[in-house]
Amino acid sequence: MPEYIGALDQGTSSTRLIVLDRAGRIVASAQQEHQQIYPRPGWVEHDPDEIWSRTRQVIGAALGQGSLTARDLAAIGITNQRETTVLWDRRTGRAVHNAIVWQDTRVGDAVAEFARAGGPDRFRAQTGLPLSTYFSALKIRWLLENVPGVRQRAEAGDVLFGTIDTFLVWHLTGGVEGGLHITDPTNASRTQLMNLETLDWDPDLLDAFGIPRQILPQIRSSSEVYGAATLEAIRGVPIAGILGDQQAALAGQTCFHAGEAKNTYGTGCFLLMNTGGEIVHSRHGLLTTVAFRLKDQRARYALEGSVAITGALVQWIRDNFGLIGKSAEIEALARTVEDNGGVYFVPAFSGLYAPYWKHDARGVIAGLTRHTNKGHLARAVLEATAFQTREVMEAMEKDAGIPVRVLRTDGGMVENELLMQFQADILDREVVRPAVKETTALGAAYAAGLATGFFESIENLRSRWSVDRTWKPSMDSARRERLYRFWKKAVTRSFDWVESEA
């Protein structure tokens, strides 16, 4: 039997193939960034054809690095940036337009239009989601209405829709020559078109958004053998797992039981709590989503708090202001000062996500004085991530009625020890970093491995999870609450900045 398993991790800024052994150790990896396209303020796009090209490159590079062939891989699991929307021609495989990225806000007026007819929670009962620029449905609608001829082609059956997982699986399994047009419930639940109860596309939602059913993929489980790859480098390797990136990280952290939670610190921040087989509808600004569905088992659900801008704020300070040369330098700069100097940075670049859901908010820096220097600004950048995480966790505990005693963390920012200590301080609870930090890729590999017998069981996976480092709170409560009070005050300054053209 093959000794390795692959995880294809297609993220917001890059694509990676990671090859792991049975112990979850990385034996080979390759990564390629792709272009971020900003046609107008608030618009964010990716070139799907570039993503497919990068996918082929990293597969070849990772296998070459490890001197591996297709015969060495038991299966490949896929994890992906969610909500990002692609429409492509089923006869050519070419995208009809750039992908509209999850961060994109071009459908803000449509959100207001739909909310007028039933409020912001108009579809929450079926989908667990509020109306927002975040999800795929309004992005699909925009493409159908604004790209000439696409609606007619879609209704004729010549155009396919997918989130990035669907686009890649279709290409990997044959493309125009019979590629599989599928997705899993974790990704489907982020489109605002899937019913959480039935785990199928909801006809009432399709009618409301004006989306033809024939463009939608079949919804399969998150862990099963879907088919074999036809790409030469991995020909014959089973494609056997699909998980949206945040659900993949939940699985990679082995949060398979109700009440277990993780926070991923990446481009954005995503805090998920497994709620088991129960659909918990949020009353405090969170999302209800599918955690995973393994093989023919019942779906497991989760509460999620999504924060749009965290790691992206560090990149913004680097690229737009030149305050640092590399993202990793933010910690050293922040350590040049003892505190934030009264400065708070609310990064509402594309509105505020959980728990506010205000698409008309915009970023603010508050508390500037003559005393402020670049160290204070760097510290405010890092602290914004921790403050936003606390807001989400408080909402989550209220909704679930379950206290989060320990927060499991992952993502690129967990290497920043100043941030992790401040996170523990502002939450007043322990924060832990796992020994294996590539939890998103690990979750995709677990899904594929459970489907093919490469991994024995969930219990076996849980036994392997271990802690690399723990941060314990050390801040006194008076200071903690004062900092948080001023953060909340700064957040209110970002509200209602954008005025509708109407």
Main structural class: alpha+beta
Provide the β-strand percentage band.
Answer: 15-25%
C-alpha-based Rg, rounded: 22 Å
Low-confidence segments, given as residue ranges, are: none
If you average the pLDDT, what whole number results?
Answer: 93
Q: N- to C-terminal separation?
A: 63 Å
Sheet with most strands: 7 strands, mixed
Structure annotation, total helices: 16
Strand order of the largest sheet: 17-18-16-15-21-22-23
Identify the overall geometry: globular
Query: Percent range for helical residues?
Result: 25-40%
Number of strands: 23
Give the oligomeric state of the chains in this entry, treating copies of one chain as homo and distinct chains as hetero.
Answer: single chain
SSE order and pairing:
Layout: E1 4-10, E2 14-20, E3 26-33, E4 45-46, H1 48-65, E5 73-80, E6 86-89, E7 99-100, H2 108-116, H3 124-127, H4 136-146, H5 150-155, E8 159-162, H6 164-172, E9 182-183, H7 185-188, E10 194-195, E11 200-201, H8 203-209, E12 218-219, E13 223-228, E14 238-244, H9 245-252, E15 261-265, E16 269-276, E17 287-292, E18 300-307, H10 311-321, H11 330-334, E19 344-346, E20 364-366, H12 374-400, E21 406-410, H13 417-427, E22 430-434, H14 439-452, H15 458-464, E23 467-471, H16 477-492
Parallel strand pairs: 1-5, 5-14, 9-12, 15-21, 21-22
Antiparallel strand pairs: 1-2, 2-3, 4-7, 6-8, 10-11, 13-14, 15-16, 16-18, 17-18, 19-20, 22-23
Helix pairs in contact: 9-14, 10-12, 12-13
